[in-house]
Amino acid sequence: MTGSDKLALRLSGISKSYGSVRALNNLSFEVAEGRFFVLFGPSSVGKTTTLRTIAGLVPTDSGRVEIFGKDVTTAPIAGRGVSMVFQSFALYPHLTVYENFAYPLREEKVGREDIDKRVKETAAMLKLTHRLERKPNTLSGGEQQRVALGRSLIRRPKILLLDEPLTNLDAKLRHDMRAELKRLHRQFGMTIVYATPDELEALSMGEEIAVMRDGAVVQRGTPDELYEQPLDTYVAGKIGSPHMNMIKATLGVDMATFDTPLGKLQPTRKVKSANSGDAALLGIRPSDLRVAGQGDAFIRSTIHLIEPLGDVTVISVEAGGESLRMVLPEASATSMKPGDAVPIAIDASKIHIFRAASGQAMT
Amino acid sequence: MVDKVSIWEALGFRKASGVGEAGWGYTLIVAIVSFIYFIPVLMIIFMAIKPQDVALSVPPTLSPTSLFGLIPDAYVFSPTLENFTSVFSRSMTAGGAPEDTGFDRYFFNSIVIATVSVMLALVIGTLAAFGFSRYPLKGNDTYLFIILTTRMLPAIVVIIPVILMFRVAGLSGSYIGIILLYTAFNLAFTIWMMKSFFDELSLDVEDAARIDGSSEIKVFFKICLPQVVAGLAATFVFGLILTWNEFLFALLLSGTDTRTVPVAMNQAVSSGGRGTDWTLLAAIETLFLIPVFLVTFFLQNHLLRGVTFGTVKR
């Protein structure tokens, strides 16, 4: 993890409505300096509005935006030290790549020679030197993306906002650009706020992830924290692929054992503030299910679908009327076929417990 | 990239680029239809260079050259520039000395009135269109609709209240009056055209400029305006053609000094009691065609891009 504990950004109680639509609903979070921070959530959850609020493009209805300790809630856009890469790239279509790079510097009244030097440096860094005289619409998607990045980086911003920057690229380029972005982050050490609906991007790039829902942050933490301790079924369902298996359950009188269609299960996690007979959902990740060995307690199940994915195979089984997915190493699944009976074992320490009504964690 | 540039491209014609090139058959059909469209213009140009005495001869003379013997001599006339000189100076009475016809003045009037009013409409209309596009009023569409109402009626209907307004304001016969009138009429068209061009622009691009430190004024002049140059050119040409050819308002609202060519043309051929002088009329029309033709020709690259703007995925 890079950077100190100094706060680069603090949003507190931000609300914003467009007409009757609530885009942001009492949104709060802070980002430490130098952090690669990911805003994660499906589309129209308020990620873009959040970034635009930080940049100052959208005035807030209420709440406070602080950048490096300074209240900038109503401050003008220029001077915030923030730059942004748009999902659409938003390159200036009438200007050459050179002029696109030079634009923010000219607005800052940087000297002509200095502009030339910095444009050439930036172009070299992003391998765009041979494209400087081209107009954006003659470039490939990946090149346009790099121009957009370069234009944002050339000002040496303290905070870089990235709004789904990879969504418009094809799969191969996306992979390359993920690595490129991480490299740039290491090289410049600026604070990055990165919005994405893509779980893989969030987990692979974010040092810290905020999962958003309905214009607010549901849970914030490192990728591991979100994976190991999801606070509710929403986060549990968003993080991890294939998605977590959810099994309906009822809490027993001993406050530890659950009645489920699979039989009795006793998770190691301790339940808190619950009553016996409470309805619950038990979450089990597909990777925490395995084929039972000799002497293990096991649950009978029948295979009904096998999806080989190369190194691993996803097996869908039916047990006690519930459909479960499990991930097995490719080698251990080769002999299986649909219709086979297979005994499965569940790692009790990996069972997540949620309240059925609210979806909140019961632990 | 060094492409071979044909003489046509050098002259401003666009190089055809498409999915497939049309064969000779289709090209021939289009050529024939285009030629049919062009016949009236061609007839006027030929009429302008015919001697007056063969203008109405039967059978008609068709060509200034025999095309290497292809056309029989009976259909060939010998071209002359006499008609063009008589546009500007001719004897008004039988056997009288040549007099100045004032047509130099009328051409000057047409050029000044059309150019100034179209430019004015372009400046005001573009600013207004940007306002309508980016800072919509409550009930934005209502105002846009009202702006267009003056163009929904035929000129002959609108002319009566306009004449009254001009009389009250004392604008009849003045340059300012006719220029303001044309500006107002072009504004409706300009605002609608330019608004649609501004609506097509990506708002993200403008926001990017704001983040890069640009003020609203700079966003407009350095980011938005350069992106709609094609639209400006298209709007300018269409407005110019409409204004250049306008007859009714000019007839009723211009004075002797501010008369435009279409009005003067009408008076030149219908006065004197000697019947219509067709070759003179054709000569005036040919001269009248040249300025719009040149402007359209030099702006045609922009024109095509402007008109097809937004229909092409960017």
Distinctive features:
A: 363 residues, alpha+beta, Rossmann fold, OB fold (Dihydrolipoamide Acetyltransferase, E2P), 5-stranded antiparallel beta sheet, 20 strands, 24% helix, B: 314 residues, mainly alpha, MetI-like fold, 2 domains, two-stranded antiparallel ribbon, 13 helices, disordered C terminus
Structural commentary:
The complex is a heterodimer of chains A (363) and B (314). With 363 residues, chain A is of the alpha+beta class. Chain A folds into two domains: 7-237, Rossmann fold, CATH 3.40.50; 245-355, OB fold (Dihydrolipoamide Acetyltransferase, E2P), CATH 2.40.50.140. Chain A has helices at residues 47-55, 97-107, 112-125, 141-153, 171-188, 199-205, 223-228, 233-238, 330-333; strands at residues 7-18, 21-32, 36-40, 62-67, 70-71, 82-85, 159-163, 191-196, 208-213, 216-221, 245-251, 258-260, 263-265, 279-284, 289-291, 299-308, 312-319, 322-329, 341-346, 352-355. In chain A, strands 6-7-8-3-9-10 form a six-stranded mixed sheet, sandwiched between helices. In chain A, strands 13-12-11-14-20 form a five-stranded antiparallel sheet, with no helix packed on it. A five-stranded antiparallel sheet of chain A has the order 15-19-16-17-18. In chain A, a hairpin with a 2-residue loop joins β9 and β10. In chain A, α2 (97-107) packs across α3 and α2 packs parallel to α4. The longest helix of chain A has 18 residues, at 171-188. With 314 residues, chain B is mainly alpha-helical. Chain B folds into two domains: 21-80, no CATH class; 103-308, MetI-like fold. Chain B has 13 helices and two strands, in the order αααββαααααααααα. Chain B has helices at 7-10, 24-48, 82-88, 103-134, 140-149, 155-169, 175-200, 203-211, 216-227, 229-244, 248-253, 261-270, 278-308, and strands spanning 89-91, 98-100. Chain B is globular. The two termini of chain B are 22 Å apart. Residues 309-314 of chain B have low confidence and may be disordered.
